[in-house]
Specification:
alpha+beta, about 55% helix, elongated, six-stranded mixed sheet, about 300 residues
């Protein structure tokens, strides 16, 4: 392995992390990083002073361009768009899990969707990847003062759009998710209702491939009945499993042995406030492969 290949290999996880946080799609992130590899392979190494700076800048610029194009496509997306879930590696340390849950949770990625592509890039580079403003300015081809303003405004918007509760309380506990999964599995309507906040919200992404709600579903009673409904069809065998997704506790639901959906949550200490249900089969393909890899 030559020096250029070794440098790229060492930085690949970081580049993929930037791309995924920008695009919310594993497939698009992998494709983008592969494009960067091809570009890197064609560059004269002697012309590069800092491999990491070059690769991070190239990845960020390409991600900005792709996010602009993706947002145009998402204007015609069928139903609600949600990020693609990532099954968290079973070998992740508590520190890894804390980092993932804080800056790659589905709830956080949805907050980032409200930022412009450049503001999202500046915010992530500074607040998540701790890159200095001089480097951000070179990456975005702006002056440092403009980049500081971008980050400041992005931080203010993220804080403004966060749910009105302590950030530390927005992560679902293992106990709460397991209790909800058990209630879902046995069809306990009272427990389902009791574990949901009265004003709970559910959003689902079917991508036009499978049925999903075109608008958010509101209210504990309506959501509880939705999860109770499969038990009215006894021919459909359902299995639910608590799993770590994007660093947080979540649930994968199987119908007749096939993965039907992945559910991520926002919660306070003992109630679920929001549920994000990913049902788009295109966004579950890699999840299934990853889960199979863990089980072998």
């Amino acid at each position: 392995m030559n020096d250029a290949t070794a440098a790229f290999t060492a930085l690949r996880p970081r580049l993929h992390g930037i791309a995924y946080r920008m695009l919310g799609s594993v497939a698009e992130s992998e494709d983008l990083v592969q494009d960067i590899w091809l570009s890197w392979h064609g560059v004269d190494p002697s012309s590069i002073d800092n491999a990491e700076a070059w690769l991070v800048a190239a990845t960020t610029r390409r991600a900005i361009d792709r996010l602009r194009a993706a947002r145009t496509r998402r204007e015609h997306y069928v139903g609600i768009w949600l990020p693609e879930p990532i099954l968290t590696d079973e070998g992740a340390t508590p520190e890894d899990l804390q980092e993932l849950a804080s800056d790659v949770s589905v709830a956080f990625l949805l907050l980032l969707e409200r930022l412009s592509p450049e503001a999202r890039a500046a915010f992530l580079l500074r607040e998540v990847f701790d890159i200095d403003y001089a480097e951000i300015a070179r990456t975005l081809d702006k002056n440092e003062a403009a980049c500081r303003q971008l980050v400041h405004r992005a931080k203010a918007q993220v804080q403004r759009d966060r749910p009105r509760r302590p950030t530390s309380a927005s992560r679902p506990s293992m106990t709460l998710v397991r209790r909800f999964a058990e209630a879902m599995a046995v069809g306990d309507l009272d427990d389902l209702r009791g574990l949901l906040d009265d004003d709970a919200t559910l959003v689902s992404d079917g991508g036009g491939k499978v049925n999903s709600f075109p608008h958010p579903l509101h209210g504990a009673a309506r959501i509880a009945h939705l999860f109770y409904a499969p038990h009215l069809r006894p021919h459909a065998a359902m299995r639910v499993e608590p799993v770590r997704v994007n660093g947080d506790w979540a649930v994968s639901r199987y119908i007749d042995g096939a993965l039907e959906s992945v559910h991520t949550y926002e919660a306070d200490e003992d109630r679920i406030m929001a549920i994000h249900v990913q049902r788009n089969p295109d966004k579950l393909t890699r999840f299934v492969r990853h889960a199979h890899g863990f089980s072998t």
